[in-house]
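Dear Dr. H.,

I hope your travels went smoothly. While you were away I took the liberty of generating a structure for the chain from your last submission, since the lab meeting agenda had it listed for discussion. I wanted you to have the full record in hand beforehand rather than looking at slides cold. The sequence, exactly as received, is reproduced here:
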Amino acid sequence: MAMVDIDHFKRVNDSHGHDIGDQVLKMVASCLANVKGGGKAFRYGGEEFTVVFSGKQRDHALSHLEELRINISRSVFSLRSKPRPKKKPKKIASKNTKPKTLKVTVSMGVAEHFERKQTAAQVVKEADTALCFNLSLYRGRC
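The corresponding predicted structure, in token form, is as follows:
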């Protein structure tokens, strides 16, 4: 299993507002929903998600998690300068202006359930510890 954290999410909310933060959460969730290799993604809380590979070994999950991480970092998140009108405008705005984009990356911590005496809570804690380690040193990595 993996714990996934959106890098600098508080900064996104503080700089761009909670509406943009919500859209970033939806974008990341959408990317995570496309996990391959038998993984299933869930919202854990705040800006954290978990991806579970039931019955799979850590090495099997890592390549799929790395693919997810790269896909999220390559996704373009466009910031609109003005709120969208409720009705389609009669005059289309100039397409010469490029929208501002926001770079979204995630960090991950991975753990494996390999002992019968190990509880699910212990595996989650181990993955969270790995995530904290990656956040402190590497941000944007598995």
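Two observations you may find useful: The chain has a mean pLDDT of 84. The CA atoms of residues 41 and 51 lie 4 Å apart.

With kind regards,
E. W.
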